[in-house]
Amino acid sequence: MSRTNTAQGRPRSPVGGGTNRWVVLVVLCVSLLLVALDATILHVAVPSLTEDLRPSSTALLWIVDAYPLVCASLLILFGTLGDRVGRRRVLLLGYALFGIASAVAALATEPSVLIGARALLGVGGAMIMPATLSILRTVFPDRRERATAIGIWTATAAIGAATGPVLGGFLVENYWWGSVFLINIPLMALILPLGRRLLPESRGAADGPWDVLGALMAAAGVLGCVLGVKRAGAGDPLLTLETAGPLLLGATLLVLFVRRQKRRPHPLIDLRLFSRAAFTTSVGCIVIGMLALVGLELIAIQYLQLVLGLSPLETGLRLLPLTFAAMAAGATGSYTLRRIGPRRMVGWGFLLTAAAVLLLTFMGQHDRPALLTVGFVLLGFGLQTTLFSAYESMLSEAPQGSAGGAAAIGETSYQLGAGMGIALLGSVMNAAYAPGLASVPGVPAEASRAAANSLGEAYKVADQLGGAAGEALHQAARHSFVNGLHVTLFVSAGLLLVGALMAQRLPRIMECPVDPEEAFDAREAEGARMAAEGLDRTAEPAGAGTVLGAAGAPEAASADPSERTGASGAPGLSGRSGSPEQPGVSGQPGSSGTPGISEQPVSSERAGVSERAGASEPSGCPEGVEPRVPATREAIEPAGSGRPAH
Q: Half-sphere exposure (CA, 13 Å, Cβ side) for 95?
């Protein structure tokens, strides 16, 4: 007896022209690496840049913050634009703009020119980041392969962020501060023609006009929120106009943006995605993960440089264990996800990160290399495990047509988490650090207030005082900073434990259904073919009306059409979905490689075989794990796929 169930087959890769999808992944990862490098490489160049350009304190703040602010605010705009006009087109334009802005930044002789160049870099980064993730979603339709690709993608982002200080320190010590930008130009000159030749073009749902006003509202709203959060993290009072004003304006615009999207027939972002617990939880886990990582990394760099006295290059080298651990987590993430599922992977990742953070509380005023290495390894592995699984779950919940919008949401949450981490953990650090300098013997009150701003400022004041008072202030500042570091680490551990609890809303297993769009199209094509041949499915033996579920397991077709209708009003995948008046997609389903659909009408005998096959060999899932079999089309077709009801 032959078995015709084809649920075990993998969907075809959309990469055309014979291009290997793994080569496409390499191109995407190289472009992401450059964007991630640029987010951190400038930090170690600030002293040299300040000495050369002599910017004011406000100008220096904008030089550092222009890139992340502009990038975060434009992610939704360019992510959704890529869904409409083509993700490859937006990505290639981002490459070109990034290279031009890097050249302008490297050769800048005025602070205002450098600020403008950093803003242009942010525009280019906003074009590149969501496009890489949405193209990855399109190129890897099979969830098992996509999990591997996302593991490599997230590891690349971690490598770029952690390698930035090392590479920047090397370039600044051997060349000049502009070299941290100049390094982007030859790489972009190489990747632009490669991307044009190798990357496939893809689009999402193109129904209706692109909402330009909505995109601008989202950009301005995110910009206001991130700017307000950054000002709060810099120590500005929360209730001042400079801090509360951008926060309130940004929050108001985002609320209006959400209301506008709910009313529009063709929204920029399908907000029904947030009704899915897995999607919303994944976004929240990304925010918490980045909140912990960026805040801790910033404080760790201050500790290594100002307390232990390491150079920028030595500081970057001390952070390399975190990078290597993140690489290992990304490389093994796909296997781990298939074995233990998203819920336990994200939860255990948060717990491991919390344990690493608590271990780092044993740091003191003296160098303990072994302790730091172990703590950074656990921190990098745990946090990368969490971010990988959260990104994979978020992207798998979104339909392919909305990949750009979903990627933009993920990247925006990444940037918001980073800004909130600096603001929240920085505020905790300042609150715990300042009281220790309130009454240092022999130090005037004005000097104590100046020293309470930061550890670097305290060292400057101590050098100016000199003598016993200066030495007392120096020691008090070091001691107070270490105490504040311990308090901040405890707060961070608490946030990570909250993330572990949040992860309990994620699916227990890695579900690997047939792509719902392809399954629906193939089912309609099969019904249309049978109708054209004059076959009557209602006259088939019992079992012929069964419905193949996501893993090839059959479902009983309901006679009532309303029972086959999901929450969105889309009809279920019943055996009677095709009719002469409802032509499906041309071509034979069996020959097209569409998984889960038999080339021949489903008989009772074959339905029984399919049921046994679906129960014992779930497609794309861990061995011995039975995937979920939805009862309606709505359960297996992601919300917001844009497919009209038939």
A: 27
Angle among Cα 278, 284, 290 to the nearest 5 degrees reads 130
Residue 210: both structure tokens together: 């692109």
CA 272, distance to chain mean position in Å, is 19
Which of the given ranges, 211-220, 398-407, 547-556, has the highest pLDDT on average? Answer: 211-220
Model pLDDT, residue 624? 41
Coil, helix or strand for 402?
A: helix
Would you tell me how many other CB atoms lie within 10 Å of the CB of residue 542? 10
Distance CA 55, CA 168 (A): 20
Number of helices and strands (H, E) in the chain?
A: 21, 2
* pTM (predicted TM-score): 0.66
Q: Quick check: 562 and 532 in contact, CB under 8 A? A: no
d(CA 502, CA 508): 13
Which whole-number Å values give the CA distances from 190 to 27, 39, 91, 95, 152, in the listed order?
10, 21, 14, 10, 21
C-alpha–C-alpha distance, residues 116 and 113, integer Å: 5
For 640: left if phi > 0, alpha if psi spans -120 to 50, otherwise beta; the answer is left
d(CA 437, CA 476): 7
CB 396 within 8 A of CB 406: no
Look at the alpha carbons of 13, 19, 21, 27 in this order and tell me if their dihedral is positive or negative.
Answer: negative
The tokens of 44 are what? Answer: 């170690």
DSSP secondary structure letter of residue 44:
G
Query: Phi and psi at residue 457, in whole multiples of 5°?
Result: -65, -35
The pLDDT of residue 534 is 62
Residue 156 · residue 34 · CB < 8 Å: no
- Cα distance between residue 498 and residue 422, in whole Å: 18
Q: Exposed/middle/buried for 586, CB within 10 Å: 0-12, 13-18, 19+?
A: exposed
Report d(CA 269, CA 290) in Å as an integer: 23
